[in-house]
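Changelog-adjacent note: as of this version, every example in the card shows the full chain rather than a window. The one below runs 260 residues end to end.
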Amino acid sequence: LASLADVFVNDAFGTAHRAHCSTVGAGEFLEERACGYLRQKELKFLGEAVENPVRPFTAILGGAKVSDKIAVIEQLLEKVDNLIIGGGMAYTFLKAQGYEIGTSLVEEEKVEYAKEMMEKAKAKGVKLLLPIDNAVSDKFADVKPVITEDANIPQGFMGLDIGPKTIEEYVNTVNSSKTIVWNGPMGVFEEPDFSKGTEELYRCLKENNIKTLVGGGDSAASVNHLGYQDAFFHISTGGGATLDYLSGKTLPAIDIIEEK
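Full-length structure tokens:
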């Protein structure tokens, strides 16, 4: 690949976390290296939001698994004022708090980690918000949800979205924020009956014009699916790359350019 060119320019932020032939290898054989305007924009917006945020600074993390966001949680607890957790990963935290979670998605091996992160948040003075009620069902389907009275989920039921009391609490925190980084939906947004948590927070952000950066992957997919593309300051083109950046990890396809 390098033999075909005189200059190496990489504009793909979405693959910046991958050390592949086309993202890193070819650049090693070319003296002239540069990033494109899209990548430059991504690094500018993400860098400013994380390193020099206007406070209060809130992070919203959702999606399926705690394990996907371990490093992100640890990094953000060093920087944010509030950390909101929703989606499937919330049930591991709820179990760590001692709540019943029914048949909800849970990572048993991460329950102790969740306890550690809650203790760390307390020690750092970070407000960590978890669901106080849930929209649940006895099957994974688009059916009318059952709303729990509190954070406990009955046996035979699984959590598929945050409940109305949780939405209200999360919206209040979002309304008091000046900068927000969001990665991961609050529920099964593809199903109309379980998209309310994600959609209500999107609506709040749009109405209040809060500076919000959204990570790629499922986050961007939920924005597009629900039609809130114009509600955000920046929607990243990176999924894994954005997570790695927020985690403080090295992005090899960026390093190869910055070496020059």
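Structural remarks: The first strand starts at residue 7 and ends at 10.
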